Amino acid sequence: MRRVVLAGRGDLAEWRDAARAFAAAGISPEEIDWREKDEEADLAFQRDAMPPAPIMARKPMIVPTAFIDLAETVLCHSDPVRFSLLYRLLWRLQLDRQLLEVASDEDVVRARLMAKNVRRDAHKMTAFVRFKEVGAVSADRRKFLAWFEPDHHIVRRTAPFFQRRFTDMDWLIATPKGSAAWDGERLMLNDAPCEKPNLTDATDELWRTYYASIFNPARLKLKAMQSEMPKKYWKNLPEADLIPGLIASAESKVRAMAAREATQSLPFHDRLQEAARNIPVVPEAPAGTLEALRADAAVCTRCPLHATATQTVFGEGPRDAEVMFVGEQPGDQEDISGRPFVGPAGRLLDQVIAEAGIDRSRLYVTNAVKHFKYEPRGKRRIHQKPNMGEVKHCRWWLDLEMALVKPKLIVAMGATALAALTDAKQRLQDVRGKAIAIDDRRTLFVTVHPSYLLRIPDERLKAEELARFREDMAKIQRLMAAAG
């Protein structure tokens, strides 16, 4: 049995030199006893740790780059078995160059798990190191000290991150597995274990204030929290002493939040109500007219969308229109102007129906949903598709519009409009371009929404779909002519 003793502090060169020597001598994994250096270990054992002379006729070992990257990470693990595991993989790779791609291999699985643990430990170090100010190096440069307790030998691996991030200050990170220090010019590494210092500073209270302000009791998930911030790190985090109390009070705070929510108006509701009060008073429209229906819809609160939209965007067109176009919902420009189909999609629709010989002034144009649903992103409002609950709430207004206008032909533009007009669940592509009888008085025609055409990134596909849309409009024109 051959013996080798390594310092085992994550040094790839140390293990690689020993592995090369044993491999050159043709010594199999079963013949080597790998050990991690121990100051109290038998000196005779350590003297017997050198490999024999190489076999000159033996071919040098060749490994893929992926193995070098894997070995460099695994050697940072604290399990002593890492040396023999890597040597066994090295030996087996000479017979199977694709070994590392075998996801079910026991050695590969174990090595990759070790590498994952090392990477996770390094990530936790970058997340949970807390520097304490211990003095000043000069008038414009301060000195800091931090303590961390890693599971593995990751100090050398992680130190360059702190050098890049905190290059403008002098710091020392002490751990039981060594230390790293930066003086503004040199990154100094030491494998000697350190003792935990007893330090506090003014930033501890800042960490507590910050953590208390971002803690959301309504989203508390203990398992997820402890997965991201394991308890073993709590003792070295100034904000961690707040955690037990925050957890204990979470349930009562959630109940209090729910009670307050019941008495508070929805977001933007007060602003919109104030705007509504400032709208000039107009004579009340006669009951049973589109004007009266539009006035009723202007103060609709049937679903939460009214709270964030600027205003209700009602249908537009003649009372006796024989054709009704139904889209999905108003967009950003429609929400601001209060009129349907005046944005980019509306302009495209105007262009195509004009090419087909259709007069828009003869059409009644509306949407399945009357309020703009969006997600704020900076200064922009990004369209969000309404859900079926919101579509069903707004079906009330759509039914009343159809009852008053009594169109002979209804054009559903897009899947949302199709769902609002029919109870059957069907794919838009299965019924697109077809005239479907709703009853003995009305016909439904299905096509895409013009906004769909504007979102197609591929120019060839966009041209094809635009041509199909023009064909659909031509069919609608023929249906209008036949009905007239």
UniProtKB/TrEMBL annotation:
Gene3D superfamilies: Uracil-DNA glycosylase-like domain. Pfam families: DUF4130, UDG. GO terms for biological process: DNA repair. Residues 314-467 form the Uracil-DNA glycosylase-like domain. CDD domains: UDG-F4_TTUDGA_SPO1dp_like. Keywords: 4Fe-4S, DNA damage, DNA repair, Hydrolase, Iron, Iron-sulfur, Metal-binding. GO terms for molecular function: 4 iron, 4 sulfur cluster binding; deaminated base DNA N-glycosylase activity; metal ion binding. PANTHER family: TYPE-4 URACIL-DNA GLYCOSYLASE, TYPE-5 URACIL-DNA GLYCOSYLASE. Belongs to the uracil-DNA glycosylase (UDG) superfamily. Type 4 (UDGa) family. This is Type-4 uracil-DNA glycosylase.
